[in-house]
Amino acid sequence: MRHAATERKEQMKEEMAGTVxxxxxxxxxxxxxxxxxxxxxxxxxxxxxxLLSMAATCPPVTLNTFTPPVQGVTTFIMMGGQxxxxxxxxxxxxxxxxxxxxxxxxxxxIFVGHDHWRNxxxxxxxxxxxxxxxxxxxxxxxxxxxxxxxxxxxxLEFDVIGTSSSTPPATGSxxxxxxxxDVGDPWTPGPPSNLNHFTQQFPRGNTAGGALREWTLPxxxxxxxxxxxxxxxxQGHFQIDVxxxxxxxxxxxxxxxxxxxxVNEDWTLPVAVNNNSSCRTHMANFKLTVKTF
Length: 293
What we know:
Elements: H1 2-57, E1 64-66, E2 70-82, E3 110-118, E4 127-138, E5 151-165, E6 173-174, E7 177-182, E8 193-196, E9 214-216, E10 220-221, E11 226-227, E12 231-234, E13 237-241, H2 243-250, E14 258-262, E15 277-292
């Protein structure tokens, strides 16, 4: 009996020792894991501090700024009309408009607008229609080695030198240009030149990709600083975002410049009675500011 009792005591000691050993192993295991977790947190925190320090000491991204020179401008004057050989058409009232009245003070000025005229004497149907479109092109040679995806911004800027209209808006000054187009056809810069409505046409807008690339312009511009569909940074000074067009040019599509279309390009002849109208905007000081990464 005593021998059996002794064996039982020894067995209990072994079981207790095993239990304690297992508990100690578990405790140290948890401690080990907690230490690793704490070490991980310390490591992540240290990396974050390093990154924040690097961000604080790194200089901001510097953009390169280019102002490509104007390569040329022109004003195309589309002329059409109707001669009345039946009715008495004298005197000429009011005087018929003439494209010869277009004068430029510098090499980078254009005119945009229209003149619709009909002689109001003795039921005369003699009519004349003039439509003015202005074009401007920039030399992008300095950007020839720049990839399109490095282009950050591109702003087309210009000043309105003067504008006149037979039907001025209630507020602000009339703006006789309707749209800004990416030109699809080549053209030759130079002084204002005449086109025959019956045999010639304006350069076409670019439709590469299936859609006409255009910017709709406001019918009037504020007489003080403000904004419309284009940004008026000051009286008569405008900026238009053309970065997407430049990206296409820099990616290999032809650069034929920009073209301003007229608000009224109606060619119905004869001009309706009492429908004489005119609107002409004179623009100049064109500038293209391009920024790249």
